[in-house]
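[SOLVED] Need 3D model of a two-part complex

Original post:
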Amino acid sequence: MTSASLPARVQQLGSPTRRPGSGKAKTTLVPYGYLTPTMVLLVVLMVIPIVMVISYSLMDNVIMKKNPQFVAFKHYSDILTSESFWTAVTNTLFFTGVSVIAHLVIGLAFAMMLNTGLLGNRTKAIFRTIYVLPWLFTVAIIAVLWRLLLEPNGVVNYLLMAGHLTGTQVEWLSQPETALFAVTFINIWSGYPFYMTSLLAGLQGIPADYYEAAQVDGASPWQRFTSITLPQLKPIIISMALLDFIWTTQQFALIWMTTGGGPLGTTEMLSTYTYKLAFSKYQFGTASAAAVIVLVISMILAFFYVRAQKARD
Amino acid sequence: MSRAQRRLLAKIAILIGLVIGALYAGLPVLWMLSSSFKQNTDIFANPPQLIPSNPTLEAYTAIFTDPVKVRFFLNSYFVSLSVTLLTLVVAVLAAYALSRYEFPFKRALNMVIVSVQAVPPITLLIPYFGLIMFLGLYNSYPGLILTYMVFTLPYAIIMMTGYFNTLPRELDEAVKVDGGSSWTALWRVLVPISVPGLVSVGIYTFMIAWNEYLFALTLTKTPDMRTVPIGIQLLMGQHSYEWNQMMSMSILGCIPILLLFLFFQRYFIGGMTAGAVKN
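Solution:
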């Protein structure tokens, strides 16, 4: 008999020498004791706020005014019929989609170069440290750095003009034609190291004999990549892409500090759109409806993420 | 072409690829470093100077001699360290319950903790604004610390539960046989041997808190409560652009993260990538 089953057996027998019931009550309450701080925080700062934001979204005159009125789904229909909302949706999809794909491509390319057997470990360690650099900066720093680099008379324009790629100084972040590409480019730069390190760990986990066997069979490097590397990394790639998708759709600081959603709304994302409704226009009801829509989108994405994770177990 | 020649060609090709990648990743950072040692008038010199012609510590002195800017850093350190410490304590308690006990609603609670991670900050921002005002925590340290914990805690609990699950139950059974409580088992036995897990989670937590922008922007008001990310932004709004100061502040702002990375590289990467890579 194992020691773990002993108390259960004793309880079954209903031994009169034990204080009746107390043993059981104690063992069931202990975990709740340990979980109390977590549950208090989750209720006060997660459950209550979500209930609040949903109720705000159904009301007028909330937060700043004192006479809230129930308006049902008016804010939702206002938002879903507003052109600027759909512009924000399109921009967010472009920004997120391009970022995720580019992160993956760059991350995988760097990880594979760093995984080569042709170079010494020290050389690879130096390059790995350089490649991780963008990861070590907070978004605020990334935003000011790229604003400096992309200034009309900044170094990016200097290099492009020296290479005769552009004839004049381009105002990358303040021209409607280029702003969305510029912020996406910045986001790509700042986000690929997460993929690179994860994929590098994944690559190192692929047994070397898979490749040796393929080489014996005469597989070309490209065949080895598509029939061994990619299938082996697939679970990691799916998890990361979904996580990245969730995070990138929520990106606020980078946009806010580079373009602020402008010029002319060309870089307006769901996050900046919602923020402006609340804290520039003080339309808290409408903003709450937008916030709930963003929440629903994130929850759907999270559902797929959890399902992908479960499929791996 | 012989095998050795092919290997050499492949090696050269990879090296070229690596150098191009390093320029992409590293040049912007190098530019930041170099600009932080320039006079503001040299920032847009033509041709650009990667190595400043008149190197100066002017920008750094300007930061260190301005009490308002020093305060940004003190705030960031205080808030981030508090968040890290509190998150670790609360997460260790929760993880212990989730790892060692069976109880009703455990699966449901697990689901809540996992899904809470996907709640977008912008969704919580509007109710927080009202809630934090109501609690009297607007423009205060506790207001920031508590809100940050909502974003650091779920991941910390999941990571620590996983870590505790790898430790044999016999360890805490042994304490209980000796008459110790579960509390003793947790703090005297499990926590001391969980240091690697705690370090990973701690680094991750510190980084989230150090980098946070949206809530710091909205839930604080006066300069003496602002953190570094907001401080950098405030610098951008002031009179003329002091690019050299913004760059030196950025360099100073990434130092704690850089140090954590250099000294705890394995834990750092472990903590950051655990969500995607399973061992």
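Edit: The radius of gyration of chain B is 24 Å.
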